[in-house]
Amino acid sequence: MSLSYLADSIHDAALAFGYESCAAIPLALLDGFGVEVDRRLDSTPDDGLKEVDRAVFNNFGAFRRLATVYPWARAAVVAVMSYGVYQIPAPFKDRVAKYFCVDSRRDPNSREYLASAALEEFMVAKGLKVETERKYGLLPLRWAAHKAGLGQGGRNNFFYTQKGSWVHLEAWLVDQKLERLTTSDLTPCPDGCRACQKNCPTGSLAEAYLTRPAKCLTFINALRPVDWVENPYSTAAGTWIFGCDQCQNVCPHNQGAWREEREFPGLNELAKDFSLERLVALDYDYIRANLAPKFWYITPDRAWQWKVNALNALKNDWAKNAWPKDKDPVLRRALADESLEVQRMANWILTLAKS
Ligand code: B12
Questions:
Q1: Is 102 helix (H, G, I), strand (E, B) or coil?
Q2: Using CA atoms, how far apart are residues 60 and 75, in angstroms rounded to an integer?
Q3: How many domains does the chain have?
Q4: Among 234, 262, 290, residue at a domain's last position
Q5: Of all atoms in ligand 1, which is nearest to the CA of residue 216?
Q6: Which of 31, 73, 145, 197 has CA atoms 20 to 30 A from the CA of 137?
Q7: In the structure, which protein residues have their CB atom closer than 6 angstroms to any atom of ligand 1?
Q8: How far does the centroid of ligand 1 lie from the alpha carbon of residue 323, in Å?
Q9: Segments forming the whole domain that contains residue 55
Q10: 235 and 134 share a domain?
Q11: C-alpha of residue 169 to centroid of ligand 1, in Å
């Protein structure tokens, strides 16, 4: 089978499995990612958070050394799947980023995971050596999708297709020099539009194609232990308790792009226990058994983070409306919580309420 026929057959299989688009790109065409990142990091001010940004980018240092880390790899197969098709139950809205509500990366029951496994099986059956990593990816996915012509990078650093930015990216390294590039006819961000940057609550979208991880709410409220008492973004976090969608929600390209058509497996059941007040009261075994596998950025050892995040959102709401009394049942429960982090948060809120 010729390489171009093989690339075509992978593309066709991907579409048959439900992907929106798929391309194959020789590895050498991904060079240049490191230069893009370094240029933006160089222009980042030394504000105390720059080293955190650098550490996050270094964590994915292999993205800029693909040929060395995977000497057998010749190309990447990049595939795009729209996830903007699911109903988001009310308790999650503006609290949990939609990407995480319908996260397929570790959910073998989701249609996206099944499609991913099927496409991989197809490539292996064609005799290819393939490798992927479904959680964080083996390569810079937005860069690869952009270079393969599958869509466009937006000013907020998201990758867009006709379905907006609500698309999940995946890639496999393969041992044959497959090439099937494509072109996108999407209109770029309008010249004067800065809606995403202006609406980022923490100013993490410092410039086009640069999200500063240390200032991104997703990094702050989910990926790392958070201490809202000391964190300068506690108020800016607003209602968000796991991730944030503000920059994508306001993007003109995304208006009307999300269609609530399907149910995501298991999401409605989880919604039942998802009021902020309920979260503060949840049993830790319940959190570890039910929330941790689904929203896996908050690891089981940080189960308390759900409660401090919920308290932070409640605090932001109380600050706008009315502070609760000392005897407020939610605060009393938090003060008696087994976790010191939760107690500390509740004590801080009581101090704020009295000041
Ligand atoms: C680390 C990571 C994070 C970190 C750091 C984010 C960051 N921008 O660095 C944190 C935890 C903050 C994060 C947050 C989120 N993430 Co994230 N994340 C990743 C991960 C694992 C690596 C990203 C990375 O390498 N960062 C380093 C930066 C420098 O690289 P980059 O983001 O690719 O951007 C560079 C190039 O792509 C280039 N670029 C891209 N296109 C173009 C076009 C042009 C013309 C130019 C000049 C440059 C250019 O610009 C950047 C260089 O400065 C990827 C998966 C992967 N393997 O790529 C997912 C990924 C980027 N995340 C994703 C998502 C959905 C999110 C969240 C939306 C989740 C949420 N709702 O809360 C947020 C949004 C944050 C944001 N505005 O970017 C999706 C994005 C899908 C899409 N349509 O773009 C990805 C691709 C995962 C996936 N499998 O689909 N994420």
A1: coil
A2: 19
A3: 2
A4: 262
A5: 12
A6: 197
A7: 36-37, 40, 56-57, 60, 63, 97, 99, 136-137, 140-143, 146, 153, 156-159, 165, 167-169, 209-211, 213, 216, 218-219, 223, 243-245, 247
A8: 37
A9: 1-262
A10: yes
A11: 10
For residue 155, pLDDT beyond 90: no
Q: For residue 205, give the ligand 1 atom closest to its CA.
A: 77
Q: Is 268 part of a structural domain of the chain?
A: no
Within a domain: 95:
yes
Q: Whose CA is nearest to atom 29 of ligand 1?
A: 37
- Atom number of ligand 1 nearest to Cα 247: 77
Q: Tell me, yes or no, whether 286 and 351 share the same domain.
A: yes
Residues 278 and 349 in one domain: yes
Rounded to the nearest 5°, which phi and psi values hold at 161? -130, -165
Q: What is the pLDDT of residue 302?
A: 98
Classify burial at 245, counting beta carbons within 10 Å of its beta carbon; exposed 0-12, middle 13-18, buried 19 or more: buried
Q: Which two tokens stand for residue 202?
A: 């923490």
Q: Which of 307, 309, 275 is nearest to 90 (CA)?
A: 275
**Whether residue 279 sits in one domain with residue 220:** no
156-184, pLDDT tens digit by residue? Answer: 889 999 999 999 999 999 999 999 999 99
What residue spans of the chain are helical by DSSP H? 3-16, 33-42, 50-59, 66-69, 98-101, 111-125, 141-147, 195-199, 217-218, 246-249, 267-271, 276-281, 284-286, 292-294, 304-320, 329-335, 340-354
Could you give the CA distance from residue 159 to residue 80 in angstroms, rounded to a whole number? 10
Count of residues making up the chain: 355
Cα–Cα distance list, 200 to 236, 244, 246 (Å): 9, 9, 6
Tens digits of residue pLDDT in 296-318:
999 999 999 999 999 999 999 99
In this structure, are 255 and 288 located in the same domain?
no
Return the residue whose CA atom lies nearest to atom 66 of ligand 1.
99
Nearest to 43 by CA among 215, 196, 212, 191: 212
In the reported structure, the alpha carbon of residue 283 is separated from the centroid of ligand 1 by a whole-number distance in angstroms of: 34
